[in-house]
From TrEMBL:
Keywords noted in UniProt: ATP-binding, Helicase, Hydrolase, Nucleotide-binding
Residue ranges occupied by any Helicase C-terminal domain in the UniProt entry: 421-571
Name assigned to this protein: DEAD/DEAH box helicase family protein
Pfam annotation, one family: PLDc_2
Native organism: Thioalkalicoccus limnaeus
MF (Gene Ontology): helicase activity
Residue stretches making up the Helicase ATP-binding domain: 219-369
Coiled coil: none
Taxonomic lineage of the native organism: Bacteria, Pseudomonadati, Pseudomonadota, Gammaproteobacteria, Chromatiales
């Protein structure tokens, strides 16, 4: 330990000696007259490490003497109290209290192995611990307990015990802090001791990105939403956003739910800073507090029924579910189903809509705001990166067993901890790394192995993990000070660690989770004055287990075809990157990606399954860009593909055999409006396959579904869209019409299958489902309904609150009918060689009377240059049927090909004078289309006019809506040739 007296100042500050003692001890006793948040911040990481990683016993005694102690410092100490620390306060009551003692002991069972105590003049303030002239005398435990030194040390400990149990000492709790705050009369600049006048911690203010998100959340609530999902990349402050938003709505009781302890710890500190004066509590396996303002709960505990029942559905005003990409898990679903707060906010940093597919419905299909990693870099909130995808040439990952979506841990460790791989990593690190490297390893032994091999070559490197000789907080200090060059870590640095000085991240292990990969990357993306860009050294192997990395970082789709396209884009230098960023893959990796070119839906399914580490859902398959039309051509329906891949349980396989025709009907039934899917979701909500509901109950539940899924309200007749105040009788009369008739058969021919029937006023399935298969059947139908609504949603006008500044990449994410390559640039849309657009051979546009058509079979047609800007997100091709538009200057003949441009139904006035494809649904639920010239009468009603005199004109009504404007026509026998518009 060196000298016995620490004199303070720049030459001999007290802080390093105190931290060294804290990190060595498993029993820590502190007694100081006052605590300032500026000083507590300096030792807080070491105290957290002590109680969380070493299970150290921590006791802290401070006082209210002269009201100098910060209330916020006391609240921060309460977070330590939740983790087992004992925090007490000496109530001075005009009695002087000037103690400054720090006692650190290392015990083994009942034996004291080592101990040291500092007694002197330093309180816990930044000045006293760093550059203040403070004298602190160190007294040590000795082997001879009866020596003068030994007796002094024993006396200090005994006196601490006495003062800690003094009658004027109280246990710190939120009530005491509140009373202290009310009676506090701090005299500024009172010369009590160094640091007593240090300013208290300012309340943080939202960043520009957070301000955007807050505005979007406010707009979302104004639109009537009670739930919403926010996607924000690691480093953009989604936890603080939740704290700011819950404060903005003046929520009295807030619940924050996550599944990892480190997230709860970080969130508590963030919320505590924003919600000044709030009571903070925990609800976990070891702590169950309820009488607090801000409750931080682990989903593993609170998600259980016996714990949820302790809280009324409306107990919390505001609920935050962090890492919402996990929300499809049963425990999360049960929690979300039970709680009915004024607002529920889902947070995630998940990189692509594929991962959001299942969870978005849990937030009422309300994606409030989205900022991904590239957005953060472009906005200047995150550091640019220089990414090197390095071929992991010393490891053949095909030899490592792959089980349940991950490599076998023991076999993987054995392959990674080798001399050859260590040399490979060291060579690339030596060539490309900068000053401060954080490296991620698969296990403790792997981290120890890598650190030892790097040290052999003169690199200052250490392995850091739970229980390692060097603790996390100490390692970060040494890295920042330049005493360390590399930290080899296992799990301790994935989340919640903020060290902007990290300028190199080395990925030495595969990560099954995209989110984990981005969290690890995010440790180095914080901006720093000395960091031009983050260097990323990612060791990538020859296995599908690595495919989630380009998906996470570059937004590549999950299908093999898209991954192969990505490989070609990398090879040809076509990657779109934010300014200041660089990305390069070794040629062997590029060739591996290109060889992945898919052979159809089965290979796409396998790629998505590998990416997710589990069976994908149909929504996820759809979002990934895979072809549903190819799926149905080759397999018939979704569940048949899943069965062919061996992913159906015995119960699911039996349900498919029994109800396969109904499943296919749900998956492919024509939908001009969303009503058919809404009816099914309402029926599932009411457990209607077990107990058929009345038409009245089904209609009421449909209204509740629309209140959850407000994006779909535009499909409702205009006079009924105020769904929060709609007249029940008027709504029921409307809902008994087409939506119900569509499922019970309506005017279908007699030999058509009728899947539902009206039985004494109840809406019932026309087939039976056995009681023991209901749960499986429900789950399978629910997945199909989720897909139908997800696939239908892009056809809706953009009326819901959305990202105020979507990027090019985001604007191309969801397409009405087809999905072009995820890497197509906007400027490529007007390609001089022509542009590929979706072609629907079965979507026949009637030139006569309304005619049924289907949009579930899609191919591609290349539109040649010379027809203006063609955008595959808005344009498609179909064929004409009939003769009603065969007249005038630009006749449309039977069999002609039509180039059509989707229109927004909310802006129908813009189509007056245009030839438009009009869409409606017949009483059987079939989609129908007709092509007509749209004109407007003097009274404001729309008239749909034919070009041929043999066909009558007719008025538009509420059951019709404009689908697409005619852009060009070419004859059916002129393949690839376009005539004038």
């Amino acid at each position: 330990m060196g000298q016995f007296l620490t004199t303070g100042g720049a030459s001999d500050p007290f802080l390093p000696r105190l931290l060294e003692a804290i990190r060595r001890a498993n029993r820590i006793d502190l007694a100081v007259a006052f605590i300032k948040i500026s000083g507590l911040d300096l030792i807080y990481p070491a105290l957290i490490d002590a109680v969380e990683t070493r299970d150290a016993e921590l006791r802290v005694l401070t006082s209210d003497y002269l009201d100098v102690t910060d209330p916020n410092a006391l609240r921060r100490l309460m977070l330590l109290s939740e983790r087992g620390a004992s925090i007490r306060v000496f109530q001075s009551e005009r009695q002087s209290f000037h103690l400054k003692a720090y006692i650190c002991v290392q015990n083994r069972e009942s034996e004291t192995l080592w101990g040291t105590a500092f007694v002197g003049s330093s309180n816990i303030s930044r000045t006293a611990l760093t550059d203040g002239l403070e004298w602190n005398l160190r007294v040590e435990q000795t082997d001879d307990v009866e020596s003068a030194e030994g007796r002094r040390f024993r006396e200090i400990r005994e006196q601490f015990e006495a003062i800690f149990s003094h009658p004027q000492v109280s246990c710190l709790d939120h009530e005491w802090i509140e009373q202290y705050e009310q009676r506090r009369r701090l005299v500024q600049n009172l010369p009590v001791a160094a640091g007593c006048d240090e300013p208290e911690e300012p309340v943080p203010q939202p960043s520009l990105v957070q301000q955007e998100a807050l505005a979007a959340l406010a707009a979302s609530r104004a639109a009537g939403y009670k739930r919403g999902l926010v996607v924000m990349a690691t480093g953009l402050g989604k936890t603080y956003l939740a704290a700011f938003d819950s404060r903005a709505v003046q929520a009295k009781r807030v619940l924050f739910v996550a599944h990892r302890e480190e997230i709860l710890l970080q969130a508590e500190a963030s919320f505590q800073r924003v919600h000044a004066g709030a009571r903070v509590g925990r609800y976990t396996g070891t702590s169950k507090q309820t009488n607090v303002d801000l409750l931080f709960a682990s989903v593993q505990t609170l998600g259980k029924a016996q714990h949820l029942e302790r809280f009324a559905a409306d107990h919390f005003d505001y609920v935050v579910v962090d890492e919402f990409h996990h929300a499809a898990a049963p425990t999360y679903r049960e929690l979300i189903r039970h709680l009915r707060p004024s607002f529920l906010l889902g947070l995630t940093a998940t990189p692509e809509r594929t991962d959001q597919s299942d969870i978005l419905s849990l937030c009422d299909d309300n994606l409030v705001y989205s900022r991904h990693l590239f957005d953060g870099i472009e906005l200047g909130a995150l550091s640019p990166f220089h990414y090197h995808g390095i071929y992991d040439e010393t490891v053949d990952y095909r030899e490592i067993p792959w089980r349940n979506g991950r490599f076998d841990p023991q076999a993987l460790e054995h392959k990674l901890a080798t001399e050859g791989r260590a040399k490979h990593a060291l060579r690339y690190w030596s060539e490309r790394a900068r000053q401060r490297t954080l490296a991620f390893c698969i296990s403790r032994s792997h981290a120890d192995f890598m650190a030892e091999r790097f040290r052999r070559q003169g690199v200052r490197a250490e392995a850091v993990y739970r229980g390692s000789a060097l603790e996390r907080s100490a390692a970060l200090e040494q890295l920042e000070q330049g005493r360390l060059q590399v930290i080899f870590s296992v799990d301790l640095f994935n989340e919640g660690i903020d060290l902007p000085a990290i300028d190199t991240v080395m990925m030495l292990r595969p990560t099954e989770s995209k989110v984990l990969f981005l969290q690890q990357l995010g440790r180095g993306l914080r901006r720093h004055p000395d960091k031009e860009a983050l260097v990323v050294l990612d060791f990538v192997g020859n296995h599908q287990g690595f495919l989630n990395k380009p998906q996470a970082l570059f937004g590549v789709g999950s299908s093999y075809a898209e991954l192969a396209d990505f490989g070609r884009d990398v090879r040809d230098g076509r990657l779109e990157l934010p300014r200041g960023c660089f990305a390069n893959y070794d040629l062997a990796i590029i060739e591996f990606l290109i060889r992945l070119q898919g052979q159809g839906p089965a290979t796409d399914y396998q790629a998505l399954r590998a990416s997710l580490g589990r069976r994908p859902t149909l929504v996820e398959f759809y979002r990934s860009g895979s072809s549903l039309q190819a799926l149905r051509r080759q397999h018939g329906q979704w569940w048949a593909l899943v069965a062919d891949q061996g992913d159906l349980s015995p119960d699911e396989r039996a349900s498919l055999e029994q109800h396969g025709d109904f499943f296919r009907e749900v998956e492919t039934t024509s939908m001009t409006k969303c009503f058919k899917a809404i009816v099914l979701e309402s029926l599932l909500d009411l457990d209607g396959f077990r107990r058929p509901p009345t038409i009245e109950d089904l209609g009421s539940q449909a209204l509740e579904v629309f209140r959850r899924r407000r994006r779909f309200i535009v499909d409702i007749r205009e006079d009924l869209r105020q769904i929060d105040d709609v007249e029940p009788a008027k709504w029921l009369s409307y809902w008994k019409g087409n939506p119900i008739k569509a499922w019970i058969g309506g005017n279908r021919r007699d030999d058509a299958t009728r899947w539902f029937k009206l039985d004494r006023g109840r809406f019932a399935a026309a087939f039976s489902v056995a009681e023991d298969e209901l749960a499986t059947f429900h789950a399978m139908v629910h997945e199909l309904v989720g897909y139908r609504l997800a696939a239908y949603e892009p056809r809706l006008p953009e009326t819901a609150p959305a990202d105020p500044a979507p990027t090019k990449r985001e604007r191309a994410t969801v397409l009405p009918f087809a999905k072009p390559s995820a890497h197509r640039k906007d400027e490529d849309i007007a390609d001089t060689d022509g542009t590929e657009v979706p072609y629907f051979p079965d979507l026949r546009i009637a030139c006569g009377h309304f005619r049924s058509g289907k949009t579930d079979v899609e191919t591609i047609y290349r539109v040649p240059a010379g027809h203006g800007t063609i955008d595959p997100r808005r344009h498609f091709v179909a064929r004409a049927t009939g003769h009603s538009m065969n007249g005038g200057k630009h006749p449309v003949r039977d069999g002609d090909y039509l180039l059509l441009e989707l229109v927004d139904p909310a802006n129908a006035g813009s189509i007056t004078g245009s030839v438009v494809a009009i869409e409606r649904q017949d009483v059987s639920g079939a989609d129908q289309y007709v092509l007509r010239l749209v004109t407007k009468n003097r009274d404001g009603r729309y008239l749909l006019k034919a070009a041929h005199p043999d066909y009558p004109d007719f008025e538009a009504n509420d059951e019709m809506r404009p689908l697409a404007r005619l852009r060009a026509v070419w004859a059916g026998n002129e393949e690839g040739s376009l005539g004038p518009e």
